[in-house]
Please model this.
Amino acid sequence: MEYVEESTELMTEVVTSYGGGAETTVHELSHETDFTSIVDYYRTQVEQSADDDEVAIDVTPGRKFMSAIAFQAGIQFGADHVYYFHRKAGGYYGQFYPEIPRTATDLIDFTEVL
Model:
C-alpha cells in the first residue's frame, strides 16, 4: 500500500504541473480474481464520464489478466482511447519515462489500430 500513496502524489504533481486538476480514488479488490468487480470498475468509469470528457484506458501496467480485462472493457464500453506503452528497447527497464529516448518507445492506441 506504500506505493499507492507515493504513486498518487506523483500523479497529482504531474497533472498539476500541466495545468490540470486531479481527483484520485483508490479501489481495492477483496480478491485479485474478482473479475466481475474489475469489469464493473472500468464500465462505470467509461459510462459515468461526461459527454465532453475524453476517456483513456492504459493497459500497460499491472498483471496480465488486469491488462486483458482493461483492454476488453475499454473497447467494449467505448473508451475514446485504449493505450499501450511499448518500450522497443529492453535496456531502459527501471528508468523514468523522461530518461528513455523517444525513439526507444511507441504509444499505441488500439482504438486506432483495431
Summary: The CA atoms of residues 50 and 89 lie 38 Å apart.
